[in-house]
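DM between two lab members

TW: hey, do you still have the Phosphopentomutase entry open?
JB: yeah, one sec
JB: this one, 397 aa:
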Amino acid sequence: MTEPKFKRVFAIVLDSVGTGNAPDAAKFDDEGADTLGDLGHAWQGALKLPNLAKLGLSNLRVKPIEGIPAADKPLGWYGRMDEISAGKDSMDGHWEMMGLPVEKELSTFPDGFPDEIIEKIEQYSGRPVIVNKPYSGTQVIHDYGERQMDTGELIIYTSGDSVMQIAAHEDVIPLEELYDICRYARTLVNGPEYIVGRVIARPFVGPDKDHFTRTANRHDFSLEPTGKTDLDLLHEAGYEVIAIGKTNDIFSGRGIDQAYHNESNMDGMDHVDEVLEKDFTGFCFTNLVDFDTMYGHRRDPKGFGQALMDFDQRLGHVLNALRPDDLLLITADHGNDPCFKGTDHTREEVPLLAWSPKMQTSGSLGVRSTYADLGATVLDNFNLKASHGTSFLDELN
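TW: and the structure you got?
JB:
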């Protein structure tokens, strides 16, 4: 077997950190969304991301982020990626990165879920359902959380994405009961009539509506991958596949040897640090979700920017800890512009940054026509053939 170019490949997905209009943004009513650009403007140039900047974060953009000039000599290779999947949810983005674009639009429910689905959930759980319409996740527990505590009802809501979210107070509905209800709900939306990307358990805690908080016990029950992914191919070839964060949930554990659950972005980076110390040959795929759930959906640019700066500090340690035969890839799965209308994801291009300590060159990777180029590059590194995407491995010298 030919030795891989890089023994270990680390990909970190900054969940929702888009970098401006995708070519098809108008189709999603997202023209003008620009997560990174609007964050720079909201911070009035005070956003400081020195490690991302030296990798080429502003270089990959048409217009640099306010306060973050383009690097004169970027450390690594940089570019942007466009999405070809039918949706703009995390599942679409991650599946496409791993060579399985979601070509058919999944079911969405702008008027709430059909009575037949809700009635089956009520019958199975023995609990009435309330809300059943699109809603902000934090607002819905503010508006209905106290009622849920009093009655034991299930709060079911959705968004512009193909998701069913089921919220309950942890003191009222124990976690395992909530997870069991979600597992059952998952069986109702696997097709053929309704196909939903994710059923998400959304437990919360707190004494009253002014103090409710969603907990890290969230769990995503994703649609089983509809075909082989790059993770499957790596696993079958004998390479170790490690998932950090909600990555394991998104792929239903398929093709994954070891998984770490994240309590937060910083907990996720602790896991990255732990894996950096391991001796293995393979791929570590990390998702950091706080940018999305804590700040993007809540339209909180100040919190979003601070979370990016916190990540950038931790990135400095990662850059120092990488071995010469390691490759680091940084990207995102979609946008979630905290300065844009609504509370949904935004259809944007995503950043692509690549660096290894043994690189002697740097430059632009251009605009990639699909997220699948990332997975194709990982497979190419391990001498495996991709079914989707074009590898940029040969550029990384």
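TW: got it. The CA atoms of residues 19 and 61 lie 7 Å apart. The chain has two domains: 8-104+224-395, 115-216.
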